[in-house]
Amino acid sequence: MGIRRNHDSHAGGRTSLVLVALLALVVSACGTSSPSDSGSGKVKVFGAFATQIEEPWDGVIHAALEAEKAAGRIDYTFADDIGYAGDMERVLRQTSEEEKPDIIFGDAFGNEEAVRAVAADFPDIAFVFGSGGGPAEPNFSVFDNWIHEPAYLAGMLAGGITQTNVIGVVGGIPVPEVNRIVNAFIAGAQATNPAVEVKVTFINSWFDPGAAKEAALAQVGADADVLYAERFGVIEAAQENDLVAIGNMSDQKALAPANVVTSVTWNMGPTVKYVIDQVMAGSYTSQDLKDFSMVGKGGAALAEINTDVPGGLPEGLVADVQAREAEIKAGTFRVDINEGQPPGSTIAGG
Predict the structure, then answer these.
(1) Residues 6+ apart with CB under 8 A from 109
(2) Which of 16, 111, 245, 330 could form a disulfide linkage to 88, CB 3.0–4.6 angstroms apart?
(3) What is the pLDDT of residue 26?
(4) Does CATH number 3.40.50.1970 belong to domain 148-266+315-347?
(5) What are the extents of the domains in the chain?
């Protein structure tokens, strides 16, 4: 196992792929205590990440915490690349006992039972984790990246751009949280182009850039000319073949400025601000923070559209996407939530 702890000297360089937002939470009411009196006047926060921080999902959370640190609101340290199979539980217990943070923030996916078990044993620490499950009293809050709405908009772009009528999507693991993003993307593509074929491959891993690139190249070999990089590694395949790519989680245009048309972005800022304000007010409670990761509250968005990608964009396409985006923001258009595995999708190695 290759756990990496407290990489403060590297944090700035690692946030270039993620949205910098606000983030940090601590404990207060309903079984939790007030922020620790460390003499600094700041909340003590620990980030616990199963994957390397370069993985965009964890990177978005980490960037938000780094922003809070830069703003002087929190003392923040973290460990990434913790992994699974008991390693997360060991790190969380050690941190809870020895460092006594006010809050531990991270990703529970793949470590659900371990994270919840530790949280139950340390009720005076606020645990705020990405999770597909519900909150638990008194101290376990949950959030997730509800980015299906901008994924639909990105699909509209992809359906209008493709010249082969074949689009590729490379995803991580076909869990409901990923499926709803991919299904929304497919729905958007079909809304623009009913004749489009969307090839979906899951690499059965949360972070394997090599496998993601290989899956994308296979889709290119099957005539895909637009690639949705739900996982990290796909954009490189698009760039090497001078094709159009769509980023995920953060604005990834910098990875391939001439090829990335947009990105489906997640912003932890609204979630962070809400919870940190609760904590500072002494009113923190365990809850499902879902709404703060959706378009309506600024937690999800489609990144700026790049019109200079290979082949260009059809006339009127951007206006159509922007009109639908306005309808989503106004609440007059609802993107369906479909968490079933996309029909016809394949799992690499399966």
Answers:
(1) 50, 130, 131, 132, 175, 177, 206
(2) 111
(3) 28
(4) no
(5) 4-143+267-296, 148-266+315-347
